[in-house]
Amino acid sequence: MLLGIKAWLRHPRLMFNRLRYAQISTKITCFYAAVLLLVLILTSALTGLGVYFSFYHQAEVELEISMNRVLDSLEQGRIIGSDFGRDDMVLPGVVLRITDNAGKVVYENDSHYPPLSRIEEHTVKNPPFWANKNMSVVEFRNATLYHARMDVEYRGQIYRMHFFKTITAERHFLETLQKILFLMTILGFFLALIAGFFVSRRILQPIREMTSTARKIEVEKMDRRIVVPPAHDELTELAETFNHMLDRLEDGFKQQQRFVSDASHELRTPVTVILGYSDLLSRWGRSDPAILDEGISSIRSEAENMQQLIEKLLFLARADQKRQVLHKESIELSELIADVMKKMELVTKDHHVELLANDDGMIYGDVVTMRQMLRIFLDNSTKYTPKGGHITVSSRRVADGKFMQVDLSDDGLGIAPENQQKVFERFYRVDTSRTKAEGGVSGTGLGLSIASWIAEQHAIKISMTSALGKGTTIHLQIPVI
Ligand code: ADP
């Protein structure tokens, strides 16, 4: 400890720099100990000054009372001489000495008091600021005197009256008091250092625990959480926030893992099929034209499926990384819908497609992705509606023209209520066999996730009404500009 203090005194700047990199507990301890030291020093100094001041003031008052009494007795006709000071004229402890013109002592009530010449010699040139300017302070080695003078004219002669008050006892008391205060200051400082060290260590203990938990959290052990301190303070808040952040990270990480494993799973099937058909072709394809045709068309269809899947995966990956570029502009929705429907009618041979209403409405969006979204819903309707089914679209201005309400309906397989939320999740398919059974293109389970991302980017609200065996309607509420 002493070495530390010496180092501080010798290289203060170096030590301050070192403190900057110290632990928070050390910083807090040092700061509070320094503040306490300052307070203690100030308190001691003020106490000392106050006591000093009051002692001097007390002596001053006693001298003044004594001087007044002397003046009163002179007025009452008391004669200056060796008998002058009887009847306790001056207060106890006050020494009166009267000298005549020639400086000869005419009267004194204490003959052991130092002679005037010695007193003059030891008079302090610069008395303390709290001493009365009309009086002087005399400092001997072991004593301090307060000295007041008064000249009196008596029977044609000038007499000088000296009043003295010893304040030695008070000075000793003060010196002892100063020593005690100094010791208390040093003791207080070290106590503050020790207490501060332990208290701040204890207060910061949860942070140390958090650090050690955080160190143990790894990709394989993402379920670890920080113990939340029982007190409701900033550290509790920090621990809770940290745990929530870990929850979100864990969710995101799991989602990512699921996405990767689902994607690989989805890609494995077409690759297996392609490999199977290429084996078949290499064995029988050269000799059997029927097998050759079937093999080539199957490989092509699987490759197309794969291509679609990869494109969708890339779209979602770009969306997740916020790299999917949208060129938003003002679009006339009725034109977009009419265009999508026209192309739909051209390619849809097995279903009745009808545009029931197409109100005018300017919206703000990216044409490419808006078209993609509408296509996803309409493709689903085609996929999940048996041949001969009906697909209708209506677009109406609603809510005083603030929104366009677009409903895309089919009378196909429908979705059970318990699955209606899940269909928007990535890779979720209600029943993988049903599309194949209908002879349609097998889905990837990504269409609706892409559509909901596009809708979100355009502040479009999506809702769904669907009943098994009756059909599905997708409702879109698109803001109008
Ligand atoms: P997919 O590529 O499988 O169509 P989607 O994300 O577009 O992927 O759809 C998810 C699931 O929701 C589909 O597998 C299907 O079972 C169901 N679904 C979507 N649209 C409809 C619809 N119009 N009618 C019946 N089921 C639907």
Give an overview of the whole structure.
The structure is a single chain. By secondary structure, the chain is an alpha+beta fold. It has 3 domains: 1-203, no CATH class; 234-318, Signal transduction histidine kinase, dimerisation/phosphotransfer (DHp) domain (Helix Hairpins), CATH 1.10.287.130; 327-479, Heat Shock Protein 90, CATH 3.30.565. Helices cover 53% and strands 18% of the residues. The protein is rod-shaped. The chain starts with a helix and ends with a strand. The model has no long low-confidence stretch (mean pLDDT 86). It binds adenosine-5'-diphosphate (ADP). Residues 376, 380-381, 383-384, 410, 412-415, 423, 428-430, 443-448, 472 line the site of adenosine-5'-diphosphate.
Reconstruct the topology from this structure.
Elements: H1 2-10, H2 12-20, H3 24-75, E1 94-99, E2 105-108, H4 116-121, E3 135-139, E4 144-154, E5 157-166, H5 168-203, H6 205-216, H7 234-285, H8 289-320, E6 328-332, H9 333-347, E7 352-358, E8 362-366, H10 367-383, E9 390-398, E10 403-410, H11 432-437, H12 447-457, E11 461-467, E12 471-479
Parallel strand pairs: 7-9
Antiparallel strand pairs: 1-2, 1-5, 3-4, 4-5, 6-8, 9-10, 10-12, 11-12
The structure holds adenosine-5'-diphosphate.
Adenosine-5'-diphosphate (ADP) is lined by residues 376, 380-381, 383-384, 410, 412-415, 423, 428-430, 443-448, 472.
